Amino acid sequence: MSTGRRLALFAAALVAVFAVAFGVAAVAVPDSVVSSWKQRAQDSHQEMSGGHDPDHDAAPESPADGLAAPVPTTPRTADHVDGFHLTLSGTPMAGHDAPLAITVTRDGVPVTTLQPYLGAFGHLVALRESDLGYLPIHPDGAEPRPGQTSGPRVGFTTRAPGAGRYLLYFDFQIDGVVRTATFVVDAVATR
Predict the structure, then answer these.
(1) Percent of the chain's residues with pLDDT above 70
(2) Cis peptide bond N-terminal to 70, omega within 30
(3) What is the rounded distance in angstroms from the CA atom of residue 116 to the CA atom of residue 143?
(4) Which of 3, 72, 108, 119 has a Cα-to-Cα distance from 125 of 20 to 30 A?
(5) Is 51 in the same domain as 106?
(6) Range with top average pLDDT, 2-6, 10-14, 127-131, 177-181
(7) Where is the composition biased (Basic and acidic residues) (predicted)?
């Protein structure tokens, strides 16, 4: 098979995979997550503009509003989501396994009511800032039993493919509501 034909087949496969991924995301991403992204985008916009922005506030909503909310790209290891405070500890290492942990508290009290969501007490995804390379990071430990709760800590082992800045998204469920926290970390190069 010629190189051109192989590239064309590869491109067609990528289009199909991304079409399916976007279709699944449109169905699977909870409205609460979309609302959270939209609120964060508005809050971030107001912070950067120094407060009220009448032009932005008066603009009609489009169907895409809030679907691609910006994430701050300066390093941050803490986030607040719906009254929960989440902290990330650990540093990703380029090419080597490194432990990461996310701890969930509310009003300074450790949260021990994390519920299983898609077979785990939390899901972590990293996107490399430079090229949006995707890195799923699976939680440590066994799959939860039905009705089991956990917390306040969810541990992960990660291996960054290269040094650089990564945007991390942590999905967790409490009281039947899935929420998403965001973090920004730098993976360090190792020798």
Answers:
(1) 67
(2) no
(3) 9
(4) 108
(5) no
(6) 177-181
(7) 40-59
Enclosing domain of residue 37: 1-67
Higher pLDDT, 109 or 72: 109
**Chain position carrying tokens 């496969």:** 13
Residue type, 34: V
Q: Would you call 178 helix, strand, or coil by DSSP?
A: strand
The per-residue pLDDT for 177 is 96
Alpha carbons 86 and 152: distance in angstroms, whole number: 9
How many C-alpha atoms does 40 have within 13 Å on its Cβ side? 20
Task: Please compute, for residue 30, the number of CA atoms within 13 A of its CA located in the half-sphere on the CB side.
Answer: 12
Tell me if 168 sits within 8 A of 102, measured CB to CB. no
β-strand partners of 165: 186
Instruction: Give residue for tokens 């430079």.
Output: 130
Considering the domain architecture, whether residues 96 and 45 belong to the same structural domain is answered as no
Number of independent structural domains in the chain: 2
Q: What is the pLDDT of residues 94-127, one digit of tens each?
A: 989 999 999 999 999 999 999 999 999 999 999 9
**Encoded amino acid at 46, one letter:** Q
User: What residue has token string 């590869």?
Assistant: 10
